[in-house]
Amino acid sequence: MKTVPQITTEQAAAMVKDGDTLLQGGFGMTGNPVHLMDALSKTETKNITFIGNNVGEAGIGGGRLLRNGQLKKMIGSFFTSNPEAVKAAQDGIVEYELIPQGTLAEALRAGGAGIGGFYTPTAAGTPIAEGKETKIIDGVEQVFVKGIRGNIAFIRAWKADTAGNLIYRMTEQNFNRAMATAADLVVAEVEEIVPEGTLDPNYIHTPGCYVDYLVQATLTLEDLGSSASVSKGKKVSEDRMNMAKRALQELKKGDVVNLGIGIPTLVADLITPEHGVILHTENGMLGVGPEPVDGGGAMNYPVNAGKIPVTAVPGSSYFDSADSFAMIRGKHVDIAVMGGLEVDEHANLANWAVPGQPLLGVGGAMDLASGAKTLIITMNHNNRDGSSKIVPTCTLPLTTLGSVDMVITELAVFKYIDGKLTLIELMPEATLEEVREKTEAKFVEQLA
């Protein structure tokens, strides 16, 4: 077997040249090669095209490069978690391109596999698809996406052997596995390097043929930024909890369910082993349990899509982001519960962008909204100014076309029956008159 050279972070950083396209693994700070990025931030290298799910946190990971003015362009799915990235993009300081999370993962996998591109239903009919080639396949509009490759990839793994074989830990696979295949030069930052033959070949995630250099670097809680610790207790209003409780009623034993951030996250707190629901998180885990009670945080636990440490229930499994979104697009997720900004009479959803507000990221919403078998939206009935969020036609940038099955607000429950928005239930303390008054969209009443 070959022996992969072991180098320092400084030597690795020197391999990145002005104008290079850099792939950086990680989901938030989980599986993020923070030591390599820190070393790169101390160089004079500039005009980098950065590709990753997000640009780290402010001043951490890719956030260091952004703060230093080393980035020419950012390509990713969710920049909102780093306010500095949002401001740089909206002020025109750095070019940017938003790609839905699952599409980004698959584009990297395609690039690494020598595939020129692929068609996906994700983002069809939305602003993300504007200017792109589309095709109707089996009656479904699909968008063409080109495969992605980079000049160099910085990835993070848990263990490596001297032959370059890599093993990832918990939800640290995320984008790392695909990126390891999709660059001309791959540098893996790892916690531990062991002699070849030490790792069981059955458990290798990335074969050594993809890896050019190894860097040993110990991860600490400080390296993870806000991902380091367990979240604090939540203060939840009665209205929000009522919505979560109502959404829970739609989940059946054996269902594979993905819960978005916001109100949907509260549903997870209500699920018990007796419900028999299998929670899926798009960053690479099936069988998500409750938040841990100790303070170990992301050093000792996997994280969910909200970047919050969670536990693993018996029977759980871990995988990478490309496989996770293949589950979603392939209709292996039964129900997605998501938040919303607008839903209209035509079952269209807008939930990722508000003009003029510091939001810059689609995340996995577009993949989930179009890919889950059933889509449930939980949201406040009205905006703060009193305007309705259930409207005749969405005016905000669309997330998906015609995919919403149910809407749950603090006032009412709607379903789309025979293609029509239908009021099927009033929430506690709500009246029919109030729902009529506060709903701009036309709806059919079918109350029990």
UniProtKB/TrEMBL annotation:
Highest taxon above the source species: Bacteria
Cite a single GO MF annotation: CoA-transferase activity
Keyword annotations: Transferase
Q: Name one GO biological process term.
A: ketone body catabolic process
**Could you tell me which Gene3D superfamilies the record lists for this protein?**
Glutaconate Coenzyme A-transferase (3.40.1080.10)
Positions annotated as active site in the UniProt record: 282 (5-glutamyl coenzyme a thioester intermediate)
- Kindly indicate where the leader peptide sits in this chain: none
The record's section on PANTHER family has: KETOACID-COENZYME A TRANSFERASE, SUCCINYL-COA:3-KETOACID COENZYME A TRANSFERASE SUBUNIT B-RELATED
The text of the family note is:
Belongs to the 3-oxoacid CoA-transferase family. Belongs to the 3-oxoacid CoA-transferase subunit B family.
Q: What is this protein called?
A: 3-oxoacid CoA-transferase
Look up and give the organism this protein is from.
Flavobacterium sinopsychrotolerans
Upper lineage:
Bacteria, Pseudomonadati, Bacteroidota, Flavobacteriia, Flavobacteriales
